[in-house]
Amino acid sequence: MRRPLAHRLLLGIRIALPRLPGGADAMALWPFMLVKKGPPLPAWIAHHERIHFLQQLECAYVGFFIVYGIEYLYLRLWRRLSHYRAYRTVRFEQEAYQNQRTPHYLATRKPFAWARRKV
Ligand SMILES: [Zn+2]
What we know:
Layout: H1 5-11, E1 13-17, E2 26-29, E3 32-36, H2 43-58, H3 62-78, H4 83-89, H5 91-99, H6 105-108
Parallel strand pairs: 1-3
Antiparallel strand pairs: 2-3
Helix pairs in contact: 2-3, 2-5, 3-4
Bound molecules: zinc ion.
């Protein structure tokens, strides 16, 4: 059975690399899901990256990286948070971390859910 286009777009094309920036296990650059070579990726990590896929599509892709970068720099330079705290506070990450273990989240998620969060 053929999957709907929206579903196929969110599955992503996995590319295994020996290492990723910052020691990450996976990274979403729609339509590519960059993953660290090794054991199979846990389902919740793939789900986390799929939430980022949707965010990237909502922000016309480049907007995601602009908002992400501005928020991260604001949190690091203005609010003086550590790298890890700033990373976890970026609103895209708040949404992804909060819902990464909820399997049906993508089916029930409201558009631009990340925008309702506060940094
Ligand atoms: Zn993330």
